[in-house]
């Protein structure tokens, strides 16, 4: 989102054709490092045929890795149910945000809003589950969903309610993600490339938001989108001359 994907969640035919051609001509592997869960990634894979381009998906901000070539999924970190209950206790009472999570049963949320409706649509889900009334399993990621005008209030609430063993960051302007301590896109990438006999210093990464910052700092060549946050642009080796809506990744390559 806001890197390879345009704001309407599309990828240009020109960019897709270039990535496929580059893969044929060069000995490279492609990966997607995203805050999205598999349910939100699968429709994009099907729509754009991304399984013919990408080799790996680092999902849920590094909590899970899906090796497309091997057909293997591996979890690197999970938030336990007791920690999830602590997050519900800490943030469930705020009227300007929803505490939400993906679970095998479906999508759980403390509040129904415009933002949660978008999650249902993007993930092709049929309805909600109430985390106060229904049991849930341990999960890779817990989200705070809100409107962008409430972002500062959400960040202040996060500062007031630390949960042991959990860390978090903005993954989108209206989404704050909680993960297990030590889980990140950077560590997910490191795990994958090391397993394939390579080093994280041999990777080139593109990013735009706060959940990309560690990846930008630790990978070999880092590129911020023109539309990246100030912190990401400052930390990157390069900044694209174009935004995600202008095929910034494709044009940089």
Alpha plus pi helix count:
9
Mean pLDDT, to the nearest integer, reads 94
Percent strand equals: 15-25%
Helix content: 25-40%
The N- to C-terminal Cα distance equals: 18 Å
Question: By helix and strand content, what is the structural category?
Answer: alpha/beta
Short description:
The protein has 253 residues and is an alpha/beta fold. It has helices at 13-25, 38-48, 81-91, 114-122, 151-160, 185-195, 213-218, 230-235, 248-252; strands at 31-33, 56-59, 64-67, 72-75, 97-103, 106-109, 128-129, 142-146, 166-172, 175-180, 204-207, 221-224, 238-239.
What distinguishing features does this structure have?
4-stranded mixed beta sheet, 9 helices, globular, alpha/beta, 253 residues, single chain
What does this structure look like?
The protein is α/β, with parallel strands linked by helices. It has 9 helices and 13 strands. The strands form 3 sheets. The protein has a 6-stranded mixed sheet, sandwiched between helices. It has a 4-stranded mixed sheet with strand order 1-2-3-4, covered by helices on one side. α7 (213-218) links the parallel β11 (204-207) and β12. The radius of gyration is 18 Å and the shape is globular. The model has no long low-confidence stretch (mean pLDDT 94).
SSE blueprint and pairings:
Blueprint lengths: L12 H13 L5 E3 L4 H11 L7 E4 L4 E4 L4 E4 L5 H11 L5 E7 L2 E4 L4 H9 L5 E2 L12 E5 L4 H10 L5 E7 L2 E6 L4 H11 L8 E4 L5 H6 L2 E4 L5 H6 L2 E2 L8 H5 L1
Parallel strand pairs: 1-2, 6-7, 11-12, 12-13
Antiparallel strand pairs: 2-3, 3-4, 5-6, 5-8, 8-10, 9-10
């Amino acid at each position: 989102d806001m890197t390879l994907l345009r704001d309407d969640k599309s990828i240009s035919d020109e960019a897709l054709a270039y990535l496929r051609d580059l893969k044929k001509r060069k000995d490279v592997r492609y990966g997607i490092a995203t805050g999205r869960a598999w349910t939100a990634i699968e429709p994009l894979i099907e729509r754009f045929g991304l399984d013919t381009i990408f080799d790996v998906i680092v999902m849920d901000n590094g909590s899970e890795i899906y090796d497309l070539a091997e057909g293997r999924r591996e979890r690197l970190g999970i938030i336990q149910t007791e920690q999830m209950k602590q997050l519900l206790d800490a943030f469930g009472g705020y009227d300007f945000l929803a505490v939400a999570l993906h679970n095998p049963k479906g999508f759980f949320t403390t509040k129904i809003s415009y933002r949660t409706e978008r999650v249902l649509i993007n993930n092709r889900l049929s309805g909600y589950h109430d985390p106060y009334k229904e049991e849930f399993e341990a999960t890779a990621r817990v989200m705070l969903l809100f409107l962008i005008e409430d972002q500062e209030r959400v960040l202040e609430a996060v500062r007031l309610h630390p949960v042991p063993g959990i860390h978090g960051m903005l993954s989108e302007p209206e989404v704050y993600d909680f993960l297990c301590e030590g889980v990140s896109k950077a560590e997910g990438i490191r795990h994958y490339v090391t397993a394939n006999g390579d080093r994280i210093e041999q990777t080139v990464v593109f990013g735009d938001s706060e959940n990309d910052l560690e990846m930008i700092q630790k990978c070999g060549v880092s590129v911020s989108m023109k539309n990246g946050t100030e912190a990401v642009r400052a930390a990157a080796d390069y900044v694209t001359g174009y935004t995600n809506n202008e095929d910034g990744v494709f044009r940089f390559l």
